[in-house]
Every structure is written in structure tokens, then in C-alpha cells.
Write a structure and sequence with these properties.
Length: about 475
């Protein structure tokens, strides 16, 4: 008996802009209960596939079939800005057409599944990034869906949170499709990969764990490149003979014509080699020329058992100082960075005149209505112009076709690369980085780590990715969990 297919794409074509397809003849099927990864570089169309499954988007061609009666739950990457003022109960209530009488019980059950407890009257926008990540996952589970769509579910989660999520997914008996750039996380439960080729806009289905599939794709690319190299040699030899015989006349000319046809057929038979995901270029973040005590921390706010408490400390950072801020989810790490940037917290100061490069984990410091072009031009350091801006942007894979788009239309990964392009162009003296690996393709991470490590100014960073942190030499650590 064949296993039941719960989701199928048949020759699906989708484009946001006419004649610029995101998907072209995309075809794949997912059986009931499967755990599948969507793989592809930033902007390849992974989130678009989720939108099509949920019928938020409609294909220009092809069909998308979901099993009759199958329900769909989605854990998005971030909480929508318009929902940040809702309390926890109000946020979960949005999941239902009619709010059931046992809503509190359903919320408690969903929160328990993600190992989280929170008063239902707490405002969603006041929660930490890690707490919001758990809320997003619980939201997707509250209706016990048949198909679970997870978009970067490990972002902002600490190790305990990720371990709990892996355990949950291994025992979850429903269908799961995951978008993530966390290779180790994916390899723990993935049994198949849908690969999106951002150049052909087609999909390929692979069976196996995540690392096996990555190796298989790499081997396939190598085989195709060798095959094409052999064909190139044959084509070159044939063309030389065609040119030689074409000038001889008689039977030789007929032979030349036949060989020309065979050469054209060889060229048509060349394999369209899938190009590996592009990696951003190596880059450096220039520093503003400034000296003195860049950051002074006399007081910080710690959050334990959902209650804030002010603690007195004595921390100061100067040029070349690098501070790693650590502690469990919800302790107040992102709150510390936000309050320092805002300048509104007593006992926390930044040297007047110091230029701050702030990478916000939710991109709240970006204007989503602004075009990419205007955003980049608006942060240029003195002496830089449009030419330097475009050259820098290209290194972050932000090309001409993206310049006119609004930031809100970019994928989360593209927003992350835009944020780093802005940091490079503004030439700050202080880098404040809140989960800078979130949403970023794993291929780019070594380049980002090297650039951060070479930055000659002051750094404050929060990150839950140990292998990324290990690549950067920190001079000090502030563990909020010890207060």
C-alpha cells in the first residue's frame, strides 16, 4: 500500500514581478508524517513555498494539492509588528475564527509542548527574542495541525530550547516542513530535502539526512562540471575540424556541415550545472576615528520569573574591547542592548559623538517602507557616494534588481545581509550585535565572523550560536544569569 501523500506541487510557477520567476515548474510531493527541510540560498523562494501552501499566495501556473481536511500550522520567523501590543492570550486567540471557551487550556498545552510558561496577560512585545521564538512555535501547535511549517525555528533559542525542540520534532507524528540555516539542528531529524535552485527556479527532491544530501548535491555538481569540461573539449575539437573541412570543398564541405550539426547537438546536451549558493564577499567594517570610554554600564536590568530587577555593575568598554553578553532566554540580554542604543536607561551611556552600528535581531531599526536604495544611501559615512554604496551592496548579494524594492518585501535573510551592508557603509565606532547569525545562510557565517573579528572598534554581542562565537576573540563576558 502506497504511503499517503499529504502535499503535492505540480509544475508550479510563481513570480512577484512579471517575467522574474521565483518558482518555475516546481514539482515535489510530501508523504504524511514526513520531516522535510526546504534548502536554498537567501531569496530562493523558501518562504514563498510556505505562502503558497497556506494559500496566502496563488501560483500563476500549476497546481498545489493539500489532503482534504488537512490543517496547517505555521511558526513564523518573527512576530508581526502589528501584534507586538497584544497580550499572550490575545495573540493566541488570533489563531481561531471563533475563540473556543477552553482557550486558556489550549494555550497552556501548546506552551507546555515548547517547555515554556508565561502569564497570559504579558504583552508579546515585552518578551525576549528567545521567549518570542517559543511563543511562535506554540502558536503553530495550538490547533494541533496536520502539516507544521517551521520558518527558522531555532532563531533566538538557547541550547536547552533547541534540544527541547529537537526532542519534540522527533516524537511529533504529523508532517513537518522546516526552513532553517542551522545545519546541526536539521541533521537531527530531517529525512528528506527539497532543494530550491535559485538560478533555474526549480525544485529537486532528495532522500536522506541533511548532511548526506548536502554531500550528494556537491558530488553532483562536481560530476556535471567534469562532464561539461569533457564536452567543451569535444566541441572545441569539432569546431576546429569544421572550420578546416569547410574550406576544402566537395565532400569535405558536406562532412563539415554534418559535423556542425553534431557540434550544435553537443552544445545543447551540455548539462545545466546547478551553481552552489553564492557566498558574500570578504569584507571589512571600517571604524570611525574616535577615542575614549565608548560604553559605560553602571546599572542593568535583569528579568527573573518574569519580574525585572535593577542591578549595579561597573563595566566600561574602550576601543578594541569586545564584550559577549550571555545568559538564558528571557534574562534580559536583548533588553540590555536595546536600552543602551535608546539612551533612555539610567546608568547606561555611550560616548557622545560615537557612531553606533546596531544589528537588531528583529530588524526593528529598519524602515520596512523604505526602499533598499534609500536605506543604504541614508547611512553612508562622510566621503562615500552612490558608487561605493553599490559596490558594497553587491558584495552582500544586493544587486540592482533589489534596489527599488521596499525592505518589507525582502526575505529575512536578505534583510540580514542589508543590515550588514549598512554597518559597513556607516563606519561605526561601536558594533552592537543582537543575534547576528539569525536568518543568515550558513555559507556566509565564516565571512561575517572574520569581518567582526577584524573590526578595530568596540563590540557588544549576543549570540546563541557557539560555533560562531568561537570564531571571535572576546576580551570579556557579561553573564546575566549570575546576578
Amino acid at each position: 500500500m502506497a504511503e499517503e501523500v499529504v502535499l503535492r506541487f505540480d509544475d508550479v510557477k510563481f513570480e512577484y514581478i512579471h517575467k522574474k520567476p521565483v518558482l518555475d515548474e516546481a514539482s515535489f510531493s510530501v508523504r504524511k508524517g514526513a520531516k522535510i527541510t526546504l534548502m536554498g540560498q537567501n531569496g530562493a523562494g523558501k518562504s514563498t513555498i510556505f505562502g503558497l501552501i497556506k494559500k496566502e499566495l496563488s501560483p500563476q501556473k500549476g497546481t498545489i494539492s493539500v489532503s482534504s481536511g488537512a490543517t496547517i500550522g505555521t511558526a513564523r520567523q518573527t512576530i508581526a509588528r502589528e501584534d507586538l501590543d497584544l497580550n499572550v492570550e490575545q495573540y493566541f486567540s488570533k489563531s481561531f475564527h471563533e475563540v473556543p471557551g477552553n482557550i486558556k487550556s489550549l494555550i497552556a498545552k501548546a506552551l507546555d509542548a515548547v517547555n515554556f510558561s508565561i502569564p497570559l496577560d504579558r504583552k508579546v512585545g515585552d518578551l525576549s527574542g528567545g521567549q518570542q521564538a517559543r511563543i511562535l512555535l506554540a502558536y503553530s501547535l495550538v490547533e494541533n495541525p496536520d502539516i507544521l511549517l517551521l520558518d527558522e525555528p531555532t532563531n533566538n533559542l538557547d541550547k536547552d530550547g533547541i534540544d527541547h525542540l529537537i526532542g519534540f520534532l522527533l516524537t511529533y507524528d504529523k508532517t513537518v516542513l522546516v526552513i532553517s540555516h542551522d545545519a546541526d539542528f536539521l541533521n537531527c531529524f530531517t529525512e528528506g530535502v527539497i532543494y530550491l535552485d535559485s538560478f533555474t527556479h526549480k525544485t529537486e527532491m532528495y532522500v536522506g539526512d541533511y548532511y548526506s544530501v548536502v554531500e550528494e548535491i556537491s558530488r553532483r555538481v562536481e560530476r556535471e562540471q567534469r562532464q561539461n569540461a569533457q564536452m567543451e573539449k569535444q566541441i572545441k575539437d569539432r569546431k576546429e575540424k569544421v572550420n578546416f573541412f569547410a574550406h576544402k570543398g566537395g565532400k569535405m564541405r558536406k562532412l563539415a556541415a554534418k559535423m556542425k550539426e553534431e557540434t550544435e547537438e553537443l552544445e545543447e546536451n551540455k548539462v545545466d550545472v546547478r551553481r552552489e549558493d553564492k557566498t558574500i564577499r570578504n569584507f571589512e567594517i571600517p571604524m570611525q576615528d574616535i577615542t575614549g570610554e565608548i560604553v559605560s554600564l553602571k546599572k542593568i536590568k535583569i528579568i527573573k520569573n518574569h519580574e525585572p530587577a535593577t542591578k549595579e555593575i561597573n563595566f566600561s568598554l574602550r576601543k578594541k574591547d569586545r564584550l559577549l553578553v550571555t545568559g538564558p532566554n528571557g534574562i534580559g540580554k536583548s533588553t540590555l542592548l536595546r536600552s543602551l542604543v535608546s539612551g533612555k536607561q539610567e546608568g547606561q551611556t555611550i560616548l557622545p559623538g560615537a557612531k553606533v552600528g546596531y544589528y537588531s535581531q528583529d530588524f526593528s531599526n529598519l524602515d520596512f517602507e523604505q526602499t533598499v536604495f534609500d536605506s543604504l544611501m541614508g547611512c553612508l559615512a562622510d566621503g562615500l557616494g552612490e558608487q561605493e554604496m553599490r559596490a558594497t551592496a553587491a558584495g552582500f548579494l544586493i544587486t540592482g534588481e533589489l534596489m527599488g524594492q521596499k525592505i518589507g518585501a525582502l526575505s529575512e535573510g536578505q534583510k540580514g545581509l542589508l543590515a550588514f551592508a549598512r554597518l559597513t557603509l556607516m563606519q561605526p565606532s561601536l558594533l552592537i550585535l543582537d543575534e547576528p547569525t539569525n536568518h543568515i545562510n550558513f555559507r556566509h557565517l565564516p565571512v561575517l565572523a572574520e569581518a567582526i573579528n577584524k573590526f578595530p572598534g568596540t563590540i557588544m554581542m549576543v549570540s546563541h550560536m557557539p560555533e560562531f562565537v568561537a570564531q571571535i576573540k572576546f576580551t570579556d563576558e557579561l553573564d546575566l544569569g549570575k546576578f
